[in-house]
Amino acid sequence: MSSSFDKYQKRRLISSYFSVVLSIGLVLFLLGLLGMLVINAKKVSDHFKEQVVLTIYLKDSAKDVEIKQLEKSLALSEYVKSTEFVSKEQAAESIKAENGEDFMEFLGYNPLQNSIDVHVKADFVTEERLQVISEEALTKSFVDEVRYDNDLVTLMNNNVKKISFWILVISGLFTVIAVLLINSSIRLSVYSKRFTIKTMQMVGATKQFIRRPFVWKSVRLGMIGAILALIGMAVVLYYVNQTFPELNLMNNTVLLVVLFVGVFMLGIIITWISTFIATQRFLNLKTDQLYY
Predict the structure, then answer these.
(1) Distance (Å, rounded) from C-alpha 145 to C-alpha 138?
(2) Is the dihedral of CA 233, 238, 244, 247 positive or negative?
(3) Is pTM, for the whole model, over 0.70?
(4) Where do the H-state alpha helices sit in 50-87?
(5) Residue 182 is inside which H or E element, if any?
(6) Which long-range contacts (CB under 8 A, 24 or more apart) does 207-216 make?
(7) pLDDT confidence of 5, banded at 50, 70, 90?
(8) pLDDT digits (tens, 9 = 90+) for 110-162
(9) Are 55 and 118 in contact (CB under 8 A)?
C-alpha cells in the first residue's frame, strides 16, 4: 500500500516538474521569437525598402558611352545598392510576357525607352532624398524622365514607424506577461510543498536551509526550460533563414548570441526570484493559514 502511494506521489511530482518546465520553455520560446523579431526588424524593413525601384528613362539619342558613364557614376554613389540597364527590347518582352500579347504588332514600332533601374539603399528611401536623386539625374541632357512610386515610399515609411513602435510596446508587455506566467507556475509548484516547508520549519530548520533546495530545484527546471526554448528558437531561425536567405538573419551573430544567452539567463533569474518569493511567503505563514 505504501509502495503504491509512493509511486503515486512520484508521478505527481514528475507531472508537476514537467508542467513547470513546459510552461517556462514555451514562455521563453515566445519571448525569444519576439526578441529575434526586434533584432531583425530593421533588416526586414530595409529589405522591403530596397525593393523600391527608381527608374531613369533615357532619350533615344543617348549614346552608349553616356549610358555607361551614368551607370558607373550611380554604382559609385553612396545611396545606390544596385543598378540594372533595361533596353527597350527587354522592356517590350517583359510586357509581352505579363500581358500575353505583343502590343508592337498593333503599333508597328516599339514606343518604350531604354532605362536604368536603380535600387536605392534603405536609408535613402525617403521622399526628400529620392527627390534629390531624381533632380540630380535629370541634370544629364540624355535623361528624359525619372519615376518612382512616391505614394508607396510614404506609406512604407509611415508603416515602418508604426510597426517599430508597436513592436517595442508588445515586447515590454510580453516580458511582463512572461515573468507573471513563470512566477505563477513556480508558486503552484512550491504551494504543493507548503506543508513540507512548515514541517521543516517547526523542527528547527532555518529559512535559508529550507529555501535552498527549492531554489536550486527551480533554477534547474528553469535551465531545462530555457534549453528547450533555445532549441526551438534555433530551429525557427534556421527555417526562416533557409526560406528567406536574402534577409541574412544569421549575419547578426553577436546580437543572436546575446539574445540566446539573455533568454537562458532570464530563465534562471526569473525562476530564482519567483522561488525565493514563494518560499518566503509560505515560511511567513502560520500553520492554520496553510489550509486557505
Answers:
(1) 7
(2) positive
(3) no
(4) 64-76
(5) helix 150-191
(6) 207/280, 207/283, 210/279, 210/283, 211/275, 211/276, 211/279, 211/280, 211/283, 214/190, 214/275, 214/278, 214/279, 215/272, 215/275, 215/276, 215/279
(7) very low
(8) 677 888 888 888 888 888 888 888 888 888 888 888 888 877 777 777 777 77
(9) yes
